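Our preliminary data section would be incomplete without showing what the modeling component actually yields. Below, a chain of 149 amino acids is followed by its predicted structure, encoded as tokens that our downstream tools consume directly.
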Amino acid sequence: EKFEQILTHYNLHPLSIRIGIHTGKVLSGNIGSDQKLKFGCMGDAVNLASRLEGLCKLYGVEIICSEDTVRMLPTRETFLLRELDLVRVKGKSQPTKLFHVVRQDKDVEAKSLLNVVRMDTTVQKSNDKGSFEKFASMRKKLLRNKSKS
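Predicted structure:
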């Protein structure tokens, strides 16, 4: 919050990040020599997480996780998740189910957030243009209220 105030003070754009999360086996460790050492991770799970991060921009969300990650959650109620899509990412033959990890900011009432997620889910299930416009309007209003606080 303080960082955002500093950015605003200097008329800079707010910081935004995108995160892709996938669960799987990776090879991780130090790579290099005594003069130059780097810690890194390699593997299919790392590559898929990177692809998911890239899809965040396309879907207009900050955090996307895979179905494999959702399955590993102790309880699904821990996070508010919204099913996004089923996609086949580059380098994979099997499609991956994507979930948007919805943040519950202290500035946004959870009830309002749930209404937007429910509306979005309804829009996904129907291709009704009116439903999409209603959802887009609700989402803009929610984001506007969030940015004012």
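The radius of gyration is 19 Å. The first helix runs from residue 2 to 9. Preliminary results of this kind motivate Aim 1 of the renewal.
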